């Protein structure tokens, strides 16, 4: 109910500012980002958390003077409001890594209605704002799926849609050797930038692949930065103090 009101109110304000439908659509529609723009940077991104391996990934990044970006769901492998998951999200954020939206329940957004899309976006944005105080400027559509309705919804919410140009393959069952070879191939090609996709919910990703990827990319001369840094943009639309836990913190 609250989400629907927010969406209706925001849409009404934008409509007043841009009465021409075509102009309004251009203004609303989110940018789709498939690659970084700052030369010699690589952005390691991690989807589907928060989950139990997240602190291990953060520690690996920290030990190697690297930064990562975590695209969080609200209720996927775990509920983001579970006390230990709240601690994990705070851990990543407080260590200087970027937190971003992967929507609430990892739904196929392109199959949803306008209100359903906004609800999926709003609920995880609210959780991240409560836990960290930061309102994300980036989101990643689950499965990398989107249509114009999804992009319009993200645009109204002030967010860009982040995809990737290197997929480790962990989510489709690729072996550790196969995942490592993706990074070997990327290093051999040596593009100016790399925007990679991993998932923090797999033990092999956290404990075998991430360290290898960090070493390979850094040895090849890449700086490992957040998505926002690799684009030269701000990671958050606003930053405030985190909130104290209340009875509303549940999935």
TrEMBL record:
<keyword id="KW-0378">Hydrolase</keyword>
<dbReference type="GO" id="GO:0016810">
    <property type="term" value="F:hydrolase activity, acting on carbon-nitrogen (but not peptide) bonds"/>
</dbReference>
<dbReference type="GO" id="GO:0098552">
    <property type="term" value="C:side of membrane"/>
</dbReference>
<feature type="domain" description="NodB homology">
    <location>
        <begin position="40"/>
        <end position="225"/>
    </location>
</feature>
<dbReference type="Pfam" id="PF01522">
    <property type="entry name" value="Polysacc_deac_1"/>
</dbReference>
<dbReference type="InterPro" id="IPR002509">
    <property type="entry name" value="NODB_dom"/>
</dbReference>
<dbReference type="InterPro" id="IPR011330">
    <property type="entry name" value="Glyco_hydro/deAcase_b/a-brl"/>
</dbReference>
<keyword id="KW-0732">Signal</keyword>
<keyword id="KW-0961">Cell wall biogenesis/degradation</keyword>
<dbReference type="GO" id="GO:0046872">
    <property type="term" value="F:metal ion binding"/>
</dbReference>
<dbReference type="GO" id="GO:0071555">
    <property type="term" value="P:cell wall organization"/>
</dbReference>
<dbReference type="GO" id="GO:0005975">
    <property type="term" value="P:carbohydrate metabolic process"/>
</dbReference>
<keyword id="KW-0472">Membrane</keyword>
<keyword id="KW-1003">Cell membrane</keyword>
<dbReference type="GO" id="GO:0005886">
    <property type="term" value="C:plasma membrane"/>
</dbReference>
<feature type="signal peptide">
    <location>
        <begin position="1"/>
        <end position="17"/>
    </location>
</feature>
<keyword id="KW-0479">Metal-binding</keyword>
<keyword id="KW-0325">Glycoprotein</keyword>
<keyword id="KW-0336">GPI-anchor</keyword>
<keyword id="KW-0449">Lipoprotein</keyword>
<protein>
    <recommendedName>
        <fullName>NodB homology domain-containing protein</fullName>
    </recommendedName>
</protein>
<keyword id="KW-0119">Carbohydrate metabolism</keyword>
């Amino acid at each position: 109910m609250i989400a629907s009101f927010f969406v209706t109110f925001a849409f009404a304000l934008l409509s007043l500012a841009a009465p021409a439908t075509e102009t309004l659509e251009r203004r609303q529609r989110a940018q789709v980002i498939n690659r970084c723009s700052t030369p010699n940077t690589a952005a390691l991104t991690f989807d589907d958390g928060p989950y139990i391996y997240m602190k291990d990934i953060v520690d690996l990044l920290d030990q190697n003077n690297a930064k990562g970006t975590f695209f969080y769901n609200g209720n996927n492998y775990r509920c983001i409001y579970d006390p230990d998951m709240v601690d994990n999200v705070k851990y990543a954020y407080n260590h200087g890594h970027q937190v971003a939206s992967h929507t609430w329940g990892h739904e196929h957004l392109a199959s949803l209605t306008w209100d359903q899309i906004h609800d999926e976006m709003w609920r995880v944005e609210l959780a991240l704002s409560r836990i960290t105080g930061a309102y994300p400027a980036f989101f990643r559509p689950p499965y990398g799926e989107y249509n114009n309705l999804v992009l319009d919804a993200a645009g109204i919410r002030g967010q860009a849609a982040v995809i990737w140009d290197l997929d480790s393959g962990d989510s489709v069952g690729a072996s550790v050797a196969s995942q490592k070879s993706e990074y070997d191939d990327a290093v051999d090609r040596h593009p100016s930038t790399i925007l990679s996709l991993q998932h923090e919910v797999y033990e092999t990703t956290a404990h075998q692949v991430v360290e290898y990827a960090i070493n390979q990319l850094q040895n090849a001369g890449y700086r490992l930065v957040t998505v926002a840094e690799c684009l030269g943009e701000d990671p958050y639309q606003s930053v405030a103090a985190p909130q104290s836990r209340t009875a509303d913190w549940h999935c």
